[in-house]
Design brief:
Creatine Amidinohydrolase, Chain A, domain 1; Creatine Amidinohydrolase; five-stranded mixed sheet; globular; binds glycine; binds manganese (II) ion
């Protein structure tokens, strides 16, 4: 399939993105004592050494940061003064990689289409050259020393440079949210029309978001009823009597990811009213947490604040008999919401450089422990689940006495709730919720 033509506005933003990325890379090179870096796209990987089947090709993220091209063995060579794309065109007749939109790529990067990486070797700049990628053999082919493959300080500096998103990245991530929102709408409609096969809901999502499974940024989570208590449930089964659907599914646009979760209730199910009150409460709590976002605040404080809000919701809805503060402090909310509030998002679903220090012991799975800074994009994804093992532990502790277990039992068949949006921190203050605006447009 040919890539869709890109608008002139997006092309202009892309050109600017490459300029910004290259300027940031120049200072990373300067700081770490390199003159240039080869960002290698990678090569196709076998699924197993005992078989000749391959994984679908996904380029190395640092390469995708510069270009949406998905041609194996290609490379972007970045010096302190510019970046050049070497697009390696496959010559075999078994496969042909996706045709890119050259009008976009050539507008941002000087581009040479070549038959093999050996053409790059003779054109490498002078000086000390680093290589970033998983294909060490390609580095050797280019004559780059093994010690200069993925050098830690340079990788870290280049990853740090990806935290503040450029206007181009915001636009492609907004497009990735719009693509996913179309799929989410179709999945919700299928559920409301009584579909109770997780596989068929997943297929409805893929069809409406116009993507093959292998193109999605992560394996879609489609959980009916009790399956929502398995946080990454993706072994699809049928649940004919389920009264709820949790769907966590994303999409890509020009290599960038969206990561979105919604939870739906079927009002015809028994006890649906109590579960709906929780879903609506969690939705309000999620939006209130987004309103708390300010530049300079530590993301972990946002996470802790969200636990207090969850304690309040649990008290309001009769799940606990104690105060919000007690529910958060005594670990009750953490038994119901065991994962992190969210994570940085970009080329990678769990994007880089926002967990450079460990979280506090009570937040072991939190993936963002940095200060919130201008230009970040991250998810806000609170949840509330009925997970047997965690609830059994809680029940055995004194804090468990504050839980109304009869209310928990009633809600257990619904599995759980997660609501996840992708949020941009505007440099001028405030946020842009890429996901809510996408749903409004879908
Ligand atoms: N879908 C993976 C996550 O929410 O982090
Ligand atoms: Mn997420
Ligand atoms: Mn998700």
């Amino acid at each position: 399939m040919n890539a869709a033509k890109t608008s002139q506005d997006l092309i202009a933003l892309y050109r600017r993105h490459v300029e910004i990325a290259t300027r940031r890379a120049a200072s990373a090179l300067e700081k770490t004592g390199f003159d240039a870096v080869v960002l290698h796209a990678g090569r196709i990987q076998h699924r197993s050494p005992f078989d000749d089947m391959d994984w679908p090709f996904v380029p190395v993220p640092m390469f995708t940061y510069y270009t949406p091209l998905r041609w194996p063995d290609s490379a972007v060579v970045v010096t302190k003064t510019g970046a050049v794309l070497w697009a390696v065109e496959a010559s075999g007749f078994w496969e042909r990689p996706a045709a890119p939109d050259w009008s976009l790529i050539r507008a941002g990067l000087q581009t040479n289409v070549v038959p093999g990486l050996d053409r790059v070797k003779g054109s490498l700049p002078q000086g000390k050259i680093a290589f970033i990628g998983h294909e060490r053999a390609a580095a050797a082919d280019l004559g780059i020393a093994a010690d200069d493959v993925n050098p830690g300080p340079l990788v870290e500096a280049l990853e740090d440079a990806r935290v503040e998103k450029t206007p181009y990245e915001i636009e492609v991530m907004a497009a990735a949210s719009r693509r996913a929102a179309r799929g989410h709408r179709a999945a919700a409609e299928a559920f409301m029309a009584n579909e109770r096969s997780e596989l068929r809901i997943h297929l409805a999502y893929l069809r409406a978001s116009d993507q093959d499974d292998a193109e999605t940024p992560y394996k879609g989570i489609v959980a009916l009823g009790e399956d929502a208590a398995v946080l990454h449930h993706n072994i699809y089964v049928d649940r004919p009597r389920a009264g709820s659907l949790l769907i966590d599914a994303g999409a890509r646009y020009n290599g960038y990811a969206s990561d979105i979760t919604r939870t739906y209730v079927d009002d015809r199910a028994g006890d649906a009213e109590a579960f709906r009150a929780l879903v609506e409460g969690l939705d309000r709590l999620q939006q209130a947490t987004i309103e708390d976002i300010t530049i300079g605040l530590n993301y972990e404080s946002l996470h802790d604040g969200c636990h207090l809000k969850l304690g309040a919701l649990m008290a309001e809805t009769g799940l606990v008999t104690c105060s919000a503060e007690a529910a958060a402090e005594q670990g009750i909310t953490r038994a119901f919401f065991p994962h992190g509030l969210g994570h940085s998002l970009g080329v990678q679903v769990h994007d880089v450089s926002c967990r450079k220090r460990e979280p506090k012991p009570e937040n072991p799975f939190l993936r963002h422990t940095a200060a919130i800074t201008a230009g970040q994009v991250f998810t806000i994804e609170p949840g509330l689940y009925f997970i047997d093992a965690l609830l059994a532990d809680l029940k055995a502790k004194p804090a468990g006495d504050s839980v109304r277990w009869s209310a928990v039992e009633t809600l257990q068949p619904f599995g759980g709730i997660r609501i996840e949006d992708n949020v941009y921190v505007r440099p001028e203050g405030g946020t842009r919720n890429l996901t809510r605006e996408a749903f409004a447009a879908a």
